[in-house]
C-alpha cells in the first residue's frame, strides 16, 4: 500500500481524495485544519457556521465522505449538530473540542459520532 508520511502522520493512498466538510467557528483553527487535510490530498470544504454546513450536507449529501466539526459552535452544540446530521443519513462525524471531557466524549460516541476528542 502506498502511503504519504509527513511529521508522524501517515495517510494511506486509498484515503486520498476523500471529501471532507470541516465546521469550526474559529477561523484560525478552521484554516489550520483545512491546510493539514489538503496537504494530504483530501478535498475539503470549510464552513464557519453549523447551519450553513447542515444545509450544504442536506443539499449535497453524496458529495461528502466525512464531517469534522468543532463541538462548541455558535448556533448549536455538537450534540444537536450530530443529531441533525445522523437523522436521515449515514455519514461519519468526528467532533473535536478545546474543552472536551470524558462525559462529552462518551456521550458523543453513544449518540453516533465515530470519534470525539480534544484539539489544541
UniProtKB/TrEMBL annotation:
Coiled-coil region list: none
Domain Response regulatory, first and last residues per copy: 19-120
GO annotation terms (biological process): cytokinin-activated signaling pathway; phosphorelay signal transduction system
Keywords: Transcription, Transcription regulation, Two-component regulatory system
Domain of life: Eukaryota
Pfam families per record: Response_reg
InterPro entries from the UniProt entry: ARR-like, CheY-like_superfamily, Sig_transdc_resp-reg_receiver
PANTHER family for this protein: HTH MYB-TYPE DOMAIN-CONTAINING PROTEIN, TWO-COMPONENT RESPONSE REGULATOR
Protein name: Response regulatory domain-containing protein
Native organism: Anisodus tanguticus
